[in-house]
Specification:
The chain is α/β, with parallel strands linked by helices and about 625 residues long. The chain contains 22 helices and 17 strands. The strands form three sheets. Strands 9-8-7-10-11-13-12-14-17 form a nine-stranded mixed β-sheet, sandwiched between helices. The chain has a six-stranded mixed β-sheet with strand order 1-2-3-4-5-6. The protein has a two-stranded antiparallel ribbon with strand order 15-16. Helix 6 packs antiparallel against helix 11, helix 6 packs across helix 12 and helix 7 runs parallel beside helix 16. The longest helix has 24 residues.
């Protein structure tokens, strides 16, 4: 047992190191804690006693107690409370951690203590935190997979969300975006009768015009509702100037954008003074966007796709045509995860062939810029290393605006049909990373080219040899129900390598009704028959659906994501219920559920629960006069 516990100690130490948390082992270098531990004997004798690890993160005291055996994780009393008798404290991880925490709460001045009971090993384990205040009151918290939530970067947010049960600043920002989108949606409808697909165009155009304020080329106060030189014409002129200032080229691209933005000057109702507002709707929209949105996009360096969020909210309120066109916008936490899975570097060149509002390109640009302080390299990232296609004219306009607002005046976006592009010619762009969320549910047997798997193959063929492609598609894409899809899967393995597939939370695209998964490939290298492919079940990702808010990130999401990346990059082993490594065939269903097998040995408690459930069932049947179900000798009639 001692040897096993030493291995657990080493594993926990590595987890702490990964989370950049420095704790002392078997004692403390902090005098106040060290003094208190001199009387912390688990036997209650008043002698010395040490937890496995303890120390300070910000103003939190962290105490960790380990056990090698999962069956010694926690012991509860008859009232379902954590047992505090000496045998339980000595033998069980949580009981021991709580004991030390309560002792330190009583004998030190620390008001916020987190006790963590750990049992098992890197493949099979439990990590259970408990919060203790200075009065000795304690609160059991949800299990975690890593110590990431207790790092200096995350512990305050963890405290606010999980212990105080309050909103964090990030949550309030998200809530404000949703609230602002709702207000603006209603104003666009009430004061302008604007069609669904045109709403984001008006928002995008006004945001470009606002950029001209920095160069004295536009003033909100100039929007006076003049009948001759209308507010729309003034905004349109500012948009035109800003596109010229951003050096958008070629001319055809600039002209396409201006053609989309012409709705601003050509829609009469938004250029006329509204009696209720006392101004034109266009001035009202401009003032609202300047106050609530423009400052966020300009001054907050984030991977958030604000225009994409607005577009998504507009569609959700109006039941617009986004889904009818197969458009499913990608959430920020997924675009950021793509950057991690692709191991994005500042030297990479990224292609998104169905870029929508440019969410993947924004996340990629943000990720690469964060990794370098070299000004020339940062400029190259903005102007040369981000490429995209978008077929829908208004989506193309939103995407281009998005990139310009992020300082990318020469974004390599084209309004073209990706499937009509020659992959060999696209390879000449030199893109070594592909990211894609293709149109969903558009393919049919009569038009198989629109199957998501066909988009995937086309992208794989468009990336340089040895590059990475990450796609998010419906799970049905990898079950290969049709002959055409099975043929494409076989062809993919013939020329490219499947690295793995991650099954996602069914609510990732909340309200759409799609069960998605992420697939990761290496391009241009044939799939070896004996290669072990990872299939991961990441349905429990720390995101949950909340009433009136949709899909919301909980603090556990940070921990879940770190665990996913640790498993993906082989930093730790995992149980098969989370990750299966196996060889694949083209006609397999490339999903965790297809390959999963339960390799866990049942514990005594599992057996006892099963027997108890059966006896309860039998008793209920007998009491319901159905004892004949258990009379084997009785003839059936």
């Amino acid at each position: 047992m001692a040897k096993k516990e030493i291995l657990t100690d080493f594993w926990v130490r590595d987890l702490l190191k990964e989370a950049q948390i420095e704790l002392s082992a078997q004692g403390s270098i902090i005098k106040e804690i060290d003094k208190a531990l001199k009387t912390a004997s688990k036997a209650g004798t008043g002698n010395v006693g040490f937890p496995e690890f303890c120390g300070i993160v910000k103003d939190f005291l962290i105490v960790i107690e380990n056990k090698a055996d999962l069956s010694f994780h926690i012991k509860r009393d008859d009232n379902n409370l954590i047992s505090r008798d000496v045998p339980s404290i000595k033998s069980y991880a949580i009981n021991g951690a709580l004991f030390y925490a309560l002792h330190l709460a009583k004998n030190t001045n620390y008001a916020k203590i987190i006790a963590i009971g750990v049992s098992g090993n890197e493949a099979k384990h439990r990590i259970s935190p408990i919060f203790i205040n200075e009065r000795g009151d304690y609160k059991e918290l949800n299990d975690v997979e890593t110590f990431t939530l207790f790092s200096e970067q995350n512990i305050d947010e963890y405290y606010v969300k999980n212990i105080l049960k309050e909103e964090t600043p990030d949550e309030k920002t998200t809530a404000d975006i949703i609230k602002d989108a709702k207000v603006l949606h209603e104003d666009l409808r009430n004061y302008g009768s604007i069609q669904d697909k045109d709403k984001p165009l008006i928002v995008s155009g006004i945001l470009l015009a606002l950029r001209e304020m920095e160069f004295k080329g536009f003033d909100i106060n100039s929007l006076t509702g003049d009948d001759i030189n209308t507010d729309g014409e003034k905004i349109y002129k500012a948009i035109e100037d800003n596109l010229r200032r951003a050096r958008v080229s070629p001319t055809t691209k600039k002209d396409k954008l201006l053609n989309q933005f012409s709705i601003i000057k050509d829609t009469a109702i938004i250029n006329e003074k509204n009696d209720y507002l006392g101004k034109t709707p266009l001035r009202h929209y401009t003032e609202f966007l300047h106050k609530h949105i423009y400052q966020n996009i300009k001054y907050i360096h984030s991977a958030e796709d604000y225009l994409g969020r607005f577009y998504g909210e507009f569609m959700s309120y109006s039941g617009g045509d986004g889904q009818n066109l197969g458009i499913v916008l990608t959430p920020k936490h997924i675009t950021e995860l793509f950057c991690d899975l692709a191991e994005l570097k500042p030297t990479d060149s990224v292609l998104d062939p169905t870029c929508g509002t440019a969410g993947f390109l924004i996340a990629s640009m943000h990720s690469m810029l964060q990794q370098t302080n070299n000004k020339a390299q940062q400029q190259s990232i903005r102007t040369n290393q981000l490429h995209g296609f978008e077929l829908q004219p208004y989506m193309f306009t939103i995407a281009t605006t998005n990139m310009i607002l992020r300082g990318d005046g020469k974004s390599n976006l084209d309004q073209e049909d990706f499937l009509r592009q020659n992959p060999a010619q696209l390879q000449l762009k030199g893109c070594n990373v592909g990211m894609m969320n293709p149109p969903y549910s558009m393919g049919t047997k009569s038009n198989p080219s629109l199957y998501e798997i066909n988009f995937t193959e086309h992208l794989l063929n468009s990336i340089t040899v040895g590059g990475k492609v990450v796609v998010i598609v419906p799970q049905s894409s990898f079950t290969g129900k049709t002959k055409e899809e099975q043929s494409i899967k076989a062809n993919i393995l013939k020329y490219h390598t499947l690295e793995g597939v991650i099954t996602l939370n069914k609510n990732t695209f909340y309200g759409v009704g799609t069960n998605p998964c992420i697939a990761i490939f290496t391009t241009g290298i044939p799939h070896e028959k004996e290669k072990l492919v990872k299939f991961i079940n990441f349905e429990n990702d720390g995101f949950e659906v909340q009433k009136h808010r949709g899909l919301v990130e909980t603090i556990e999401a940070v921990d879940k994501r770190q665990h996913l990346l640790d498993v993906w990059f082989n930093r730790i082993e995992s149980e098969t219920r989370f990750c299966v490594k196996t060889t694949v065939e083209a006609d397999d269903e490339w999903l965790h559920s297809f390959y999963y097998f339960n390799d866990e040995i049942p514990m005594d408690t599992d057996f006892e629960k099963t027997v108890g459930d059966y006896l309860t069932f039998e008793f209920n049947m007998v009491m319901g006069d159905r004892e004949y179900l258990f009379n084997k000798s009785k003839n059936k009639e």
